[in-house]
UniProtKB/TrEMBL annotation:
Organism phylogeny: Bacteria, Bacillati, Actinomycetota, Actinomycetes, Micrococcales
Listed GO MF terms: isomerase activity
Catalytic activity, EC: 5.3.2.8
Source taxon at top rank: Bacteria
Official protein name in the record: 4-oxalomesaconate tautomerase
Transmembrane residue ranges: none
Pfam families for this protein: PrpF
Organism field: Microbacterium lemovicicum
Family statement drawn from the similarity comment of this UniProt entry: Belongs to the PrpF family.
InterPro entries tied to this protein: PrpF-like
Matches recorded under Gene3D superfamilies: Diaminopimelate Epimerase, Chain A, domain 1
Enzyme class: isomerase
Amino acid sequence: MTDADRDGVRCMVLRGGTSKGAFFLAGDVPSEPAERDDLMLRIMGSPDPAQIDGLGGAHPLTSKVAIVSRSDRADVDLDYLFLQVGIAEATVGTLQTCGNLLAAVGPFALERGLIEAGGEQTTARIRLLNTGDIADARFATPGGRVDYAGDAAIDGVPGTAAPIELEVRGEGGVLPTGRVAEELDGHRVTLIDNGMPVVLLDAAEFDVDGDESPEELEGRADLTASIERVRLAAAELMGVTDAATATVPKMLLLSPPRRGGAISTRAFIPSRVHTAIGVLMAASVAAGIRIPGAVGHDLADLPADEGAPLGIEHPSGVFPARVRVLRAADGLWTASSSSLRTARKIFDGTVYPRPAASAPAPTPSREDPR
């Protein structure tokens, strides 16, 4: 490995879905978590609310990192580790994954030679190291190269691009406590994890109509404090360590749909409100509202066809989430999900981190999935 401070680090910046992140080959960055986290903070320009001295865009949706390698599992092509880099704080989270950046993992791997094109379309099987889930990503590769141009549009991203089909399969049940609903801090909640740990809440219980802007919700100190109390209680039940600084679970306020979808959402991620919705957040919401008795089930407008996509409304539009929810004979609820995303290569080159001598020390990682 080269001297990152002097020689820089090979890096590709890609948009994946409604997120943007810095992508690295695992062999180009330190394998030791503390050393890796320190480097990523210096590359992204954290801690600093503006991230003025790095690649970060001063928002959780643009302060993300993906580290990709060939997998050592015979039935998997790629391993994908997601890092949520703090902005104003020197933190690097590994407890969650990112389904939006997942859309760009296959194209990045082909660009870097980790996989070969499979013809006009290429399918990559990806292990999400943060969660252990397995995903299949199918994307266009005419002539053996990634084609980013196309006519697929997703809400929250201007213009169109080539479609990328994602299918994510989890292992085990989707209800961490085994209960469809319970009460926390005086509020009825559903704890669910269909690729992303989330807490489903009835927006009306928090005096939220459901059509407020992210800025309006973030400006209500009483609301954010109330949601944080519920989040901390839920985190303990969901096995999240160091909940006060963790980026999961995500908090979803649900209300009746307004734009022809199945449900309306406002997602706290957790301190900022998402301007759209994450892929796996949408998958967890869609699975939850399919379960009778769960928070949101009675608020939702569910299609009669159980295979039909569920329109998950969010501040920027509607996310079509396809989920299959099954209940086993022993009562265990399981689910899988599929979605359509797009991605685009923005930059490929060498990034130079802020010198170590001038950077604040990082907060130690909580739990590294590797």
